[in-house]
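Q: Hi! First time doing this. I have a protein sequence and I read that you can turn it into a structure. Is that right? Here it is:
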Amino acid sequence: MIIIAQVWGDQPQHPNLPYQALCIIRYESEGWTEVENINSNGTVDIGLFQINSTNWAMCGGKQHLKDPDANARCAYRIWRQAGETWNPWAAWTQRHNDGSPPCKVTNPD
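A: Yes, that's right. Below is the predicted 3D structure, encoded as structure tokens:
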């Protein structure tokens, strides 16, 4: 996914960030761009990164978030707003209890 490299790739202080982003996609949506999930609290998650409806307004609204580019850019804004952490994503917090990424990917360099 070229958009992942474009949005997440230029982070020297976080060299594994693009790989972590791919992990989030894997666990949140399995790469399905059009997927929508209704959460038990009534909010809705949409797209690759499963952007929650509480964040749709800051990203231009729901209609844009099935587009992979818009979804990735929105996810980046959320990541930055969360202090450059993956804490807003359940896939990260549920699988990150032991301090390792949710899937085994690293920078090949």
